[in-house]
């Protein structure tokens, strides 16, 4: 999921539970204009950092422990990453999202659209 500065959902892609989130990151960032992209350690890859640099944005991503050369990040800006967590928590207020009642992905995606619209109206 991609959220804005205020923690409102912008884009999302539903994947299988065992799929890593970094596989969908380029699709979420496609065509986006931003000053900075904040993400956690799971998104630390050279390819994603290059994509963010091509957007003329700053990658605020802490380095993974297995990286030999640590890439510094702005800690003050990284503190705002909690906005995506707040976005997920707002979506979890909708029981249908939190427990994933829908078996079909298209139905679940439709409900996420509805819940995201409700969050934007708040």
TrEMBL record:
Entry superkingdom: Bacteria
Signal peptide range: none
GO biological process: DNA transposition
GO molecular function, one term: transposase activity
Domain Transposase IS4-like: residue ranges: 4-118
InterPro entries hit by this protein: Transposase_11 (IPR002559)
Cited NCBIfam families: transpos_IS5_3
Name this protein carries in UniProt: Transposase
């Amino acid at each position: 999921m991609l959220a804005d500065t205020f923690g409102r959902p912008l884009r999302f892609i539903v994947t299988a539970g065992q799929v890593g989130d970094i596989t969908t990151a380029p699709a979420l960032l496609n065509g986006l204009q931003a000053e900075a992209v904040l993400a956690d350690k799971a998104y630390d890859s050279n390819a994603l950092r290059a994509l963010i640099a091509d957007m003329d944005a700053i990658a605020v991503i802490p380095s993974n422990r297995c990286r030999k050369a640590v890439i510094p990040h702005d800690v003050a800006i990284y503190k705002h990453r909690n906005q995506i967590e707040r976005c997920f928590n707002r979506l979890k207020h909708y029981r249908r999202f939190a427990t994933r009642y829908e078996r079909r992905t298209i139905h679940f995606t439709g409900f996420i659209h509805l819940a995201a619209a409700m969050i934007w109206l708040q």
